[in-house]
Amino acid sequence: MWKQLYQDENARVGVMSLSHGEVETPVFMPVGTQATVKGMSPDNLKQIGFQIILANTYHLNLRPGMEIIGESGGLHSFMNWDRNILTDSGGFQVFSLAALRKISEDGVSFRSHIDGSLHMLTPENVIDKQKIMGVDIAMTLDECPPYPSSKSYIQKSMDLTIRWAKKSRQYHPVGSDGPKLFGIVQGGMFHDLRQECANKMIPLDFDGYAFGGLSVGEEKNKMYDIMSAVHEVLPTNKPRYIMGIGTPEDLLEAIDCGVDMFDCVLPSRNARNGTLYTWDGKISIKNRKWQLFQDPIDTKCPCYACQNFSAAYLHHLFKAQEILSLQLNTYHNLCFFYELIQAAKKEIYAKNFKTFKSSLLKKWNK
Amino acid sequence: MWKQLYQDENARVGVMSLSHGEVETPVFMPVGTQATVKGMSPDNLKQIGFQIILANTYHLNLRPGMEIIGESGGLHSFMNWDRNILTDSGGFQVFSLAALRKISEDGVSFRSHIDGSLHMLTPENVIDKQKIMGVDIAMTLDECPPYPSSKSYIQKSMDLTIRWAKKSRQYHPVGSDGPKLFGIVQGGMFHDLRQECANKMIPLDFDGYAFGGLSVGEEKNKMYDIMSAVHEVLPTNKPRYIMGIGTPEDLLEAIDCGVDMFDCVLPSRNARNGTLYTWDGKISIKNRKWQLFQDPIDTKCPCYACQNFSAAYLHHLFKAQEILSLQLNTYHNLCFFYELIQAAKKEIYAKNFKTFKSSLLKKWNK
Asked: What is the spatial distance between Cα A274 and Cα A270, in angstroms, rounded to a whole number?
């Protein structure tokens, strides 16, 4: 379902063929946790150019629940998004949000962070849920150990994740109708465990492979160190996905390591806090220096915010706590992430990716 | 600047010629207090069809301030709205929001509700401010007495408003460059005072006349009683505006009384609280009955929300407290108000307005 189009050292351009159209990689997927990317209409996302978004099984399972999404004809129809959707399995949220969780061989039981109701996720039922939602890419259930954890705990947790991955593949074998299924490689900050986990999952022939358990509080250099293992430990002929990253810097580093897919709440969450991304680095729109600034924050940016409004107006909207501030800031940041990836693809084709990356990192870290 | 096109008893269709294009009346003006209609982009407002919006001098004077709006080339340019803008004079907000206000012959001084800073509005400087903003219709400064007030206080206050109106007209005479200037008729719930106030203002030859001091807590029948004076006391050859109303019922009653212009935060504020308007009456989108409702809330509504999303999805967005809930609900309610006025115009042309009004009121009051 993924085909490489071009390569520049480990960085690569490819294309995924999915039920709701083709998706070029590298790709950044905006996060639509509750069946909406906060502050964006589906039309806005299409105007930017996104071909795939992410939604969260954990959240949607609790609210509105699978019955309502199923009755609505699936998630695409429910949220009126006719392009691709990837859903996580809920594993990460169970381990970061839910209360009273209890892990067993069969899965993980927990109490809802919304109303305390009791739920259980299993390797099998998370596939059922993602099938009910009718998503294009489903993720397997994994355990996400906290950072830091001892190597022995990471090993034990990883072994469970591998057993769950096997159950998942048995339940949704290669060639099944419905979503493509991605496996999640765990192993913490340990190269040997990542390698071992990947080795045991590759025979399961998932449609793509993710690294889970990164960007969980570790130092950047540790994360980059583990990312650097991607090219070595994951198959070259399948899409590779690092879950939950990241900053523009992280995306560039990851692409350089041969990663194809990313998702992160960062651009949208930062937008709501007034932090905006530009080709010259981050800015804070609440800063008084923008009060009388008549140009858009980025004159070259094609987004609706920059094409129509001055930085002075964005500053005013933020100070006045207006809804349009959330909308325009989110629009801009998501567009920046989209454009960054578009530029990266161009540089890969030009065999110039490393130079491109270094010059941006140098500018941003000034 | 206003021309009548058609009349059905007191109800009338007309057209105002303003600097940023023609505006058909009756017209409902969405409220963009802080230089944005909450949750709507300028494009959204245009998609619905609005030709004029309202903004608040009081709020914009405090934040971002006239210097910034002036430096930005005026309010149209600042908020990227190239159709018409009417601004109130700030009088109403001074009397409802500001602290420590002190009325004198010259104007009213007060402290900002945002930061406590000291300000003064005068009949002359509110015109200056509205000229700096470059609006199409400016309102004169008036005193808005609280409801209820004694007849003697209303009389005294009205006399001041009349003296301020004279100063305003002297300061911005008939034919001046810049905004059209509307006078505000006060007089509380007293027909004779409304008549007296109008009689004293008509010689000032304002471009239009408003009734202020309605919808300030009085019973509906009192408001409708005063509204019924509009046709008798205000000139027939100029636009008539009732400030700060109202519900769909209020708009129909007002049109029936010969009123041409309205503004109100109701449709947008109610949208944010989950109250949506339909041709069958108000609904609460938070009600569980919408949880599995697969149709839009109004299948005939042309708005972006109804054309693209089910009531079930709107219900979910509201429960999940998503930003898109505010956006879609606002879009729908403003579109409903727009469509209601469009329908009213059609019925006036059909000489059928009273029947149209009665049948809707009967349905809504069931």
From this structure: 6
For residue B324, the chain A residues in CB contact (below 8 A) are 36, 38-41
> Degrees (nearest 5) of the Cα angle B2, B4, B5?
130
Question: Which of B264, B292, B316 is the endpoint of a domain?
Answer: B264
User: pLDDT tens for residues B2-36?
Assistant: 999 999 999 999 999 999 999 999 999 999 999 99
Confidence at A103, pLDDT banded by 50, 70, 90: very high
> Which pLDDT band, with edges at 50, 70 and 90, does B350 fall under?
very high
Of B64, B313, B320, the CB nearest to A316: B64
Residues B108 and B199 in one domain: yes
- Each residue of A237-284: pLDDT tens digit? 999 999 999 999 999 999 999 999 999 999 999 999 999 999 999 999
Domain boundary at B196, B230, B264, which? B264
Per-residue pLDDT at A130: 98
User: Which of B35, B68, B317 lies nearest to residue A36, judging by beta carbons?
Assistant: B317
Answering whether pTM is above 0.90, one says yes
Q: Above pLDDT 70, what percent of chain A? A: 100
Looking at every residue in chain A, the average pLDDT score rounds to: 97
DSSP symbols for B204-245: G--SEEEE-S-SSS--HHHHHHHHTTHHHHS-TTS-EEETT-
Contact, B262 vs B251, CB < 8 A?
A: yes
Q: Which residue on chain B is closest to A311 by alpha carbon?
A: B78
Which of helix, strand or coil describes residue A326? helix
Report whether pLDDT(A170) > 90.
yes
Note if A207 is an active site residue: no
Cβ-nearest to B36 among A64, A71, A324:
A324
Q: Determine whether the interchain pair A68/B322 forms a contact, defined as Cβ–Cβ distance below 8 Å.
A: no
Mutate to test the interface with B, among A61, A309, A322 (most CBs of B within 10 A): A322
Q: How would you classify the pairing of strands A275-278 and A281-284?
A: antiparallel
Among residues B121, B119, B37, B135, the alpha carbon closest in space to that of B85 is found at B135
**Mind telling me the catalytic residues of B?**
88, 263
Buried b (16+ CB within 10 A) or exposed e, B178-192: bbbbbbbbbbbbbee
Taking the CA of residue B28 as centre, how many other CA atoms within 13 Å lie in the half-sphere pointing to its CB?
31
Closest residue in chain A to residue B296, using alpha carbons only: A78
Helix or strand (DSSP H, E) at B338? helix B323-349
Q: Which residue on chain B is closest to A40 by alpha carbon? A: B324
Number of domains in chain B: 2
DSSP state of B290: G
Does residue A280 have an active-site annotation?
no
* Cβ contact, residue pair B312, A35, below 8 Å: no
Whether B9 and B57 share a structural domain: yes
Residues spanned by the domain of B61: 2-264
